[in-house]
Structure formats: structure tokens, C-alpha cells
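Page 37, top half.
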Amino acid sequence: MRKTPAISFDEARRRRGRRRGIQILAVLSAMIAAVFIISVNTGYIRLTPLELLHTLLGRGTDKQELILFDFRLPRIVISILIGAGLAVSGAVMQGVFRNDLADPGILGINAGAGLMVMLLISFYPAASAAPVFMLPLVAFAGAAATAALIYALAYKRHEGIPSIRLLLTGVAVAAGMSAAMIVLTLRLDPDKYQFVATWLAGSIWGTSWKFVLSLLPWIVILLPYVVYKARVMNVLNLGEQTATGLGAAVNREQFRLLGAAVGLAAASVAVSGGIGFVGLVGPHLARRLVGPKHQLMLPASALLGSLLVLTADTIGRWILQPSEIPAGIVVAVIGAPYFLYLLARTRS
């Protein structure tokens, strides 16, 4: 009779960690589903669970179908997508720079993308006239240029990119981009000014299926690519010298991963406005829940980011009905204290 080979303690611990991580991912998915159901029924006009079910099955009234399929579902789907995109973008930046405070909003990547989107919109007679499928491309150009500028200013020969120098450079560049956006608003007519003010506050302004279609390819392509590179990110976290000794092409991998992170952040900003802190809070909570290994941490970050933005948007639509609070403000109420806590812990 053959004996089953004994499992080492380390292997048993890894298996327990994997099982626990998968259970946490399942719980996060269930929480997103619960908030999804609540969000669908949040608004000035309410749908009972039975009406919601009938409408989803195609047996609702024209008014119910208009509310659900034209107004609420696209916004909910966009909230889920941009939450995942921003959180994974932040996770990649924290991994590549080995800096717990790296975030596309704090480092100015979102501001660079937003500046280009605002430039595009300002040249059209109405904000809604700007070509939807062109917005992510324009945002990516602005975000990439900003990332290159931050990298060039923060890099020091023989030292790489020190954490505090990266943070301060990003904050300074973000402030400059924000100032440029404020100057641009001076030439806008009142209608466009109102739109820009709402956008800067982090309102999810792309609320139709065409915005979902413009964002979806970026998420569907770049997010799986980043998850595929999870093992590479684990190696990069060991430091440049160790990663090079293990055979990793450090500079090439960093460039590719940063490109993916910038693309995710830019595409999300193009349809969501200036929502910050998602790329900071999501990865940190994921790391606490499932550990630092990117195979589980990246999916957990995506789910936590989606949950955070969807919850923030739902609260913003519910708390002052029929008016609403931009999701970016609700996220900032959560993210700003957490950022200060991380900054104080880093300094200590």
C-alpha cells in the first residue's frame, strides 16, 4: 500500500493562505453583489425587488426599463470598472516603486489625464459632444506624459527614486496640473464650468452604455495582463539587485507594468472625474486581508476598489435625494484620513 507523501509545514501554510485568500475574494464578491442590488434600487424613483426582477426579465414597464437600463445599470457598471482600474493601478505603482504611498491620484497621474480630457472638452460646443471613444486615448496621453515628468524629476542617479522624493514630486506636479485646470475654467461658459466643477469633485459623469464600451477594452486587456505579471511583481519587490540576479529584466518589466498602470488610471479618470485615494486604500486593505503575494493581492485590490467606488456612488445618490454628492467626495472622506495615517506611520 502506497503512502501519501508528507506535506511540509511551509507547503501546508501556503495552502491555508491560498484557501483563506479565495474565501476572502468570495466574500468581497458577495458584498459587491449586495451593494449592486442596493444601488439598483437607490434613487428618487424606487423599484421594489419584485419590480426589479420583472424588469430584469423584460416584463417591466417602459418607465421601469428606462430607469434601470438607461440610467442606473450603466452607472453601476462604470463604478465597478473604474474602482477596479484605479485600485489595480495603485497596487502596481506601489509594487514597482516599492512605496506604500504611491497612488495615481496622489502622484498626479489622474491630474495629468484630467487636464487632457478638459482640454479636449473645452474645444467642443458642449461637454457631451466630445468623442467618447477618444477620451481614454487623450487621457492616456496626458497621464503618460505626467508619469514621465514625475519619473524624470524624482530619479536620482545611484539612488533610484527615493520614496519621499517621489511623493513630494507627485504632489507638486499634481498641484501644477490642478492650477492649469483652474486657469482653463476661466474661459469656459457657465454650462461647461458647472460640468468641470462637478468633474473635478469626482462625479461619475459617463452614465451611458457608450461610456461603458469606451472603458471596457482598457479594463479587459490591461487588468488581466497585470494579474498575469503577478509573479514578476513578486520578484521586483525583492529589490533591483535581487530581481536582476534571479533573471528578471527589471527596467523592461517596470516600464511595461507602469504603462499598464497609467493606462488603467487614465481610462478610469476619463469617465469618472477626479476620484482619488482608491488606488491607495484598495491595495492597502487587500494586503492586510490576503497578504503581499500579488497573485491574490491584485484581484483583492480590484474587488475592494469596485466595492469602495460603488458604495461611495450609492451613498452619494442616496444621502441628499433628489440631489447627489459626487462619489469622489465620499471616497475622500474615507481616503484622506487613511492617507494621513499612512504618512505618519511612514515618517515614524
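Page 37, bottom half:
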Amino acid sequence: MKKIVVLTGAGMSVESGLSTFRDADGLWENYPVSRVATHEAWEDDPEYVNNFYNMLRKKLLAAKPNEGHKLVAKLEEQYEVTVITQNVDNLHEMAGSTHVIHLHGELMKVCSSRDVDNPRYQKTLGGDDLEVKPGEKAGDGSLLRPFIVFFGEGVPNISIAAEEASKADIFIIIGTSLVVYPAAGLVQYVSPDVPVYLIDPNPVMKTGYRHIEHIQKGASEGMKELVERLLEKK
């Protein structure tokens, strides 16, 4: 069975009603990175940072996977599929994707602020339990914090993602620019003879070192077109 690796960014979830951070009227317009997404911000005001992510969880609870998410999941009927996502939402899992690697953390999880990557102190929130309350602690006695990779922190799953990219028979990028890392970096691990498709409605900077086919559409329409083309080739 051929292996497809799908790399997704913020543009994947726009059709589900989730704001991107960088676009006009995105979340960074109202909440500066320096206040909500750095380790320094957490150290300075953990309650403010937790309140921001409490708010995002409520927004996510109202979101549903779009057709693009569903079509990515449907690929599993005929391919081995790994999704590598820069998004912190769980919409790929909700759509039915079974192998998802989160590069930047998971919004619905919280963790120890002393030992972020220790699964013993991680907890998944949901239902009526969406908020981290002021002073709430993890199992190791440190403050609970969002299970999010803050700016300036290492990306623990990047080596796993690179390994998956190197095994791809088909590589698909959806909703993320080729000039923003880790997207640009992961493409370099894809074998030179493997086709690479980029689905994004915006113009993108072409890379000089390999051919990338750009389908200039949103996630859902772009995936519909690509799935039809992949089925024709089978």
C-alpha cells in the first residue's frame, strides 16, 4: 500500500471557522504573541495565558471538520496515511484520521509546566471541563499549562515528522506556505522522485530545487480535485 504524508497548516482549518493567527483580523491582531505564546509570557502571567487558551478551547468546541479534513481521512481507505499538522486543533482526529502528528501541541490537552512532555502529567480536557482554573496544578505539583509549543521552545515531534516525510510515496501540503518552517524544511526530506502537491488559494513562492504542483484552491475544493486525480492514476 502506498504511503501518503499530508502536512497541514492554518489554512486547513479556516473553513471550519477557526481564525488563523497571522492573517488580517487573525488572533495575533488582538492577542500579541508576546503575551500568550512565549515561555516568558507564561512565567510573567500564567493566569492570562491560561485564560487565552481556555477561550480558544470554547471556540474549538463549536468547530466541525470541513470537507478537506474528511477527504484527508478518507484517503486511509486506499493508502497508508500520516498527517503532520502545525495546527493545535483536533479536527483531523474528529474527521477520522488515525495517525496524526502534532508539531505545535494540542489545544485540548494541558500538562505540567515543569515537565511538559511527560505523559504522566498530561490531561485531555473536554465536555464541561474546558478551563484551567487559576492556581490549578498538575500531578507533579507544578502549575497546569497548555500543551502548546510556545515560540522559542523546541518542537519535540519534528524528527518523527521528518522520518515520516522521508517514507512518503506522495506528499501533500495543505494551507501552509512554503516559506514558513517547518513546512519548507520537511519537504527537503521527501525523496526527489516523489510527487509533491500544494493546496493553497494564495500565490506561493516556488522553490528552485524541486517541482511542486500548486493547486490554487481552498482545502476542501483542492482536496476534491486532488483525490479525483489520484484515483485516476490508480
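Margin note: Strands lie at 3-8, 80-85, 100-102, 105-112, 123-124, 144-148, 170-174, 196-199, 213-215.
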